[in-house]
Amino acid sequence: MLTELQPGIYYWHGGVNFGLLVGADRQLVLIDAGLDAAAPRKALRPFLEQGYRLAAVVATHCHADHIGGAAELHRRFGCPVYAPAPEHLVLEHPELGGALLYGAYPPPSLQVKFLQPQAPCPVAGVLRPGPLAVAGLTLEVIPVPGHSPGQVAVAVGDVLFAGDSVFLPEVLEKHAFLFMVQPQTYLESLERVAARRESYLVPGHGPHLVRRPGHDPLPEVVAANRAHVREIQDRIRAALARGPMSEEEVLLALARQADKAYNSDPSYYLDRAAVSAHLADLAARGEVEPAYPEGRRCWRLAESPRGRRA
Ligand SMILES: [Zn+2]
Question: How many whole angstroms from 287 Cα to the centroid of ligand 1?
Answer without folding.
Answer: 28
